[in-house]
Amino acid sequence: MLEKMGEFFDARVDGYETHQLTSIDSAREFYPFTASCLPQASGSRILDLGCGTGLELGYYFEKVPTARITGVDLAPGMLEALRNKFRDRSVTLILGSYFDVPFEENAYDAAVSVESLHHFTKEEKTPLYGKVKNALKSDGTFILTDYFAASEEEERFRRAELLRLKKELGLSDEAFYHYDTPLTVAHETEALREAGFSSVAVLKNWGATYTLKAVR
Ligand SMILES: C[S@@+](CC[C@H](N)C(=O)[O-])C[C@H]1O[C@@H](n2cnc3c(N)ncnc32)[C@H](O)[C@@H]1O
After folding, report:
1. What DSSP string describes 43-105?
2. Which of 17, 18, 75, 167 fits a disulfide with 6 by CB distance 3.0 to 4.6 angstroms?
3. Is the CB of residue 6 below 6 angstroms from any atom belonging to ligand 1?
4. What would the pLDDT profile of 77-93 be if each residue is shown by its tens digit?
């Protein structure tokens, strides 16, 4: 069964954070690590792609309570949970797909995305990353923590499986369905470089989960 992306996450919003922190290897390390890679100056402006309930933001606010966040997500229930958690923080939420919504240009000290972008192809991500690059200030960085395919074979297999399942279920629409199709780190890096980021580096990894840093 394939569920539409937003509906998948909204149906699981209760217990989502416990699930992330207890079922995903090293989550208790990579969330705080990701937060530590973001600018530590007070009032930093951060764009979060696929912010969900704001797990990474909770760790970040511990360090930079005055941070100003713009979070984008297509699941309204996840955004509502985030809003309820951070009522006393500076948070602007955008309900929609990060592929579609415009981002303010030259505006953010950093962008971040955790565990969200492993559902999309390189062709989908390259123009998105161009938009992210343009949203950053001249010295801005994009911190991407996600899980990656171990090989091109795995990457191809999972994409083929998604297409096979969609065909089997008669789903010919362009909607996003929840099915993991991670790229290899090499292909993710290519997408970021082709989008115009000047450098891309692996900062750390925990098994298949990596944190990449792309510099505008
Ligand atoms: C596994 S959750 C991660 C949430 C949060 N970043 C975290 O690590 O806890 C993935 C999130 O990405 C969101 N998402 C997936 N595709 C999206 C898209 N195209 N545009 C905006 N949000 C998207 C989902 O709705 C979901 O809230």
Report:
1. T-EEEEET-TT-HHHHHHHHH-TT-EEEEEES-HHHHHHHHHHTTTSEEEEEES-TTTS---T
2. 75
3. yes
4. 999 999 999 999 999 99
